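(Fold this chain)
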Amino acid sequence: MGQQETSRGTAGTTDGFGGEIGRGQARTVRARWELQTVSRIREAVALDLVAREVCDEVVSEAELVTTELVTNALRHATPLSDRTVRIHWKARGNCVEIEVSDGGSDTEPVPAARAVWATSGRGLRIVRSIAHEWGEQRDEKQTTVWAALGGPSRRRVGH
């Protein structure tokens, strides 16, 4: 692994998954199906977006959304066929899209009803409140939940 700095300062060359920070137009990681993945992927996304000079507000939103989507996948779904969860993100200026794919579940990902004393179930409500657009795509092999942050989504405008 190359040098890396975990603060919002200068990023090194590779992240904890061995990927080049800030290189290319998008990044995809297949991470192990375990709870430690949440903090590791949150850090990788943040380092990458900082290196791409995404504004601090959108980086913070991306960290929170990534945390919620990966946690939901690990708690409520099954792993992909290779026992991983797939995280894909791309940035164009201050617009960021994040996708988390898993092996699916018997239920559809929807925000839980509001419950003041609930100790869980707020993840997609948080995502919905931060993202200007979010959604899910399903097929027989996987479910992908995505969120668009910081501006108009290319999904909406059809690019």
